[in-house]
Amino acid sequence: MMEVAEKGKLLVDWASKEMPVIKILKESFTQNKPFAGLKIGACLHITPETANLVLLLRDGGAKVFLTASNPLSTKDEIVDYLRNYEGIWVESKRGESNQEYYENIRKVISNQPDLIIDDGGDLISTMCSENKTISSKVIGGCEETTTGIIRLNNLHKEGKLLFPVIAVNNAKTKHMFDNRYGTGQSTIDGILRATNILIAGKTCVVAGYGWCGKGVAQKAKAMGAKVIVTEIDPIKALEAVMDGFEVKTMEEASAIGDIFITVTGNIEVITDKHFNNMKDGAILANSGHFNVEINVEYLEKNKISKRKIRDNLEEYIMPNGKHLYLIGEGRLANLVAAEGHPPSVMDMSFANQALSLEFLSKNKTRLKPGIYDVPIEIDKKVAFYKLLSMKIRIDELSEKQKKYMETWNLGT
Ligand code: NAD
Ligand code: ADE
Q1: Hey, whose CA ends up nearest to atom 8 of ligand 2?
Q2: Which residue, 5, 170, 290, 337, has most beta carbons within 10 Å?
């Protein structure tokens, strides 16, 4: 038992070396205790990077209640380490059922947190629909991901969001790095660990050319894949074309692809008509937040047989005799089959989380229920600290330049 926790500690310490912004915040939070006396409920992928965030919040005076944001993304050694070495309240285990997943979320809520961090909206939506009294006392929350923000915006439109939520995903120092470079690299990592295939020469179909899709397409291309993008937004589709990718409908692409990767945040992006078109041996991976992008239910209902080939890789034999290979049950391939984003990008995402929580705790009487942007000062501070840690300096505006940028009458 202790051996597992020790393994977790090594992983957390190793990750911390690549999280210099969190380290800078640790010095100030330890001294100033911005969360003294406050309880923070957190629903996050339980990884070494998350452990570093939780320890930062604890050092800032908070009592943290942590549960997982996906039943398959928890690293059990990190749970053990946080619980047994650090005395943090944490409930989750990898492979828990959906019922256990929601029981753990409800346990976090029953501890009546003052502040919330969510990744995907399960904690906040459960709280606001099932525990109105506890929710109405919450100072505020932060949401980590694109899908969570869409869900919480929809909840707010129905008048059911009961406290202010900061859309951390929308900070530039979050999505430009985490969604793009983090998801790009770690999704390819997940596919490689699950399959050990060569990417070079394969045709890789990327569904969605948003922040994650751009990263995945870029990394797959860099490894020698022929990349086809599918989109529903004409502007994003055009961007993909001008970035040098082929753009096709999923119906067209389904007959050509060797590897399919969904990152749309949408439902049934790959479904029966596409499965039927696919080549024998096609590999299916999803890195969008929920396991709804590839219609796994259809595969389950219609398969002739299914078997486990390797860790996180299952083979489905379909009625047309073709073999389809699904990574990580269609859940986030980068977190299930690999280790999620590297700590260097989580450093910025979680610095935005920590500073946004501090902002909420300072502004508790001013903010009404709704979705708020991360204040630009926080976004710039995170970039400034990250550059500082890389020993990179940038130019400053001269007085003359500042004045010039404020004029309109100096032309040709
Ligand atoms: P985004 O809004 O920037 O991009 C999504 C893109 O998908 C958009 O361009 C949209 O037009 C396109 N799209 C929607 N429906 C489609 C369909 N049916 N077919 C093809 N394209 C379609 O979002 P994002 O930030 O790139 O996030 C995408 C998903 O990844 C979300 O679920 C998000 O929560 C998740 N995410 C996962 C990780 C991870 O670690 N795996 C990290 C960040 C975000
Ligand atoms: N989301 C994507 N990668 C992650 C990581 N390493 N830790 C926590 N959340 C993540």
Answers
A1: 45
A2: 337
Strand order in the sheet with 203-207: 246-247, 226-230, 203-207, 259-262, 283-286, 323-327, 313-317, 305-310
* 17 Cα–ligand 2 center, Å: 16
Confidence of residue 366 (pLDDT cuts 50, 70, 90): confident
Rg (CA), the chain: 22
Q: Which CATH architecture has domain 180-336?
A: 3-Layer(aba) Sandwich (3.40)
Of all atoms in ligand 1, which is nearest to the CA of residue 293? 18
Does this chain's domain 2-174+341-389 share its CATH topology with 180-336?
yes
Please state the domain extents for the chain.
Answer: 2-174+341-389, 180-336
Per-residue tokens: 195: 């399959």
pLDDT tens sequence across 306-355: 999 999 999 999 999 999 999 999 999 999 999 999 999 999 999 999 99
User: Could you tell me the distance, in angstroms and rounded to a whole number, from the CA of residue 340 to the centre of ligand 2?
Assistant: 5
Atom of ligand 1 nearest to the CA of 211: 26
